[in-house]
Amino acid sequence: MNIKNRYDVVVIGAGPAGSVAARFAAENGASVLMLERDREPGIPVRCAEGVSHNGIAPFIDIDQRWIASKIDVAKLHSPNGETAIMRNNGTGYVLERRIFDTALCELAAEKGALLVTKADALDLVWENDKIIGVKYKYLGEIRTVKCDIVIGADGVESRVGRWAGIDTSLRLEDIDTCVQYTLAGIDVEKDTCEFYFGKEVSPGGYVWIFPKSDHTANVGIGIAGHLAHEKGPKEFLDEFMQKRFPNATVTYTVYGGVPTAAALKELVKDNVMIVGDAAHQVNPITGGGIVQAMIAARSAGKVAAEAVKQKRFDAKFLKKYTKEWDKTLGDTQKVIFKMKEKFMKLTDERFNGIVDFCQKVPADKFSLKALFTEAVKGDPKLMMDVAKAFVVSKIKLK
Amino acid sequence: MKINRELCDVCGTCVSVCPVDAIIVSEFKVDIDNMKCINCLNCLKVCPIKAITEDK
Questions:
Q1: How many domains does chain B fold into?
Q2: pLDDT in tens, A171-210
Q3: Does the distance separating the beta carbons of B25 and A257 come in below 8 Å?
Q4: Which terminus of chain A has fewer CB atoms gathered within 10 Å of its CB, N or C?
């Protein structure tokens, strides 16, 4: 491996956002270096690993190597113990992120991007108030690489944005604090993901069960940051475990935060673009971010390559990416964020009512759209927004 | 702020809510720059495993 002193584009972070940005930048002619802090892409896995088929299919050929299970059913549990079954959401998968993330990096490498692991970005390099590169630590040595564009795909703890002068800090209300156990020795249905709601179970968030086989699953919890002070997610999840899986073995424990905000308004600066969790490109209700990250990263990578061709690295040019994001998913995310703010205020009684309503919808007709529409009933303006958002996202995701 | 390294999972959740960029996360550890810290307690509140305490 030969790391040069200069690339057109340096991508920081080799998760789905980073590797897709790198791939599309390289494919369109840019020379690309990807810096990953950890020893391999995808680890440690900080993810519930659920994605929709339609979301990932445009980016990678489905490969059994990184699919743990295929999901066709969603089961919702209300605070009062009722359940509703949803079968009309399309196929989903529970991934093996460790293998999936590496597979995405392999695609970037095929297009000519170079990945360096154990390379920890430390800061941007400035000259005459202009960003001209990245300082990073590799094998105990501080190095500098020059570039025209830095793409920050450095996750929820992103610092690239801050270094460039973008305020990426989240309000406590807009982050979910999460714990997840991967369980073994349990009995679950391999094709069914489950969700539990209610303030006793998971205030301002939910508990999820994403099966990886008939006997293993990712079981996790996210609770809203401002509601987590006294009792944290671990305590809530341990209580849940006592009730549902008292005899399970935990093979993996992971902690983490999920942004549940509207995406960053400022996604670019001169010479800098921010993508993925770092840009808060996450569905603020579900907490899902893999597909959002890849869609954003594809446009960021393409715009970066175009910038290289035209030698235009100013924010004004790079804003093409911002505009494309707004059109594809950004505006939708704003609506979902409004819904999230409403969801946060829902009482347990209202959740019971929603699940009660959902029970009456035939499972094969029941989709997230039906659920959300019911949830925002009584707020006509938001209902319209939701309907629009669903129509738009359906077209976009095709 | 003080970090209990026995508990800390280096997940970076604290970094995302720090309004003054006082927290740095590397591959193996998280550091809080107490000179920059304004004691807002955001990090302490969101830490999923409560590994952060006030440094009194």
A1: 1
A2: 999 999 999 999 999 999 999 999 999 999 999 999 999 9
A3: no
A4: N
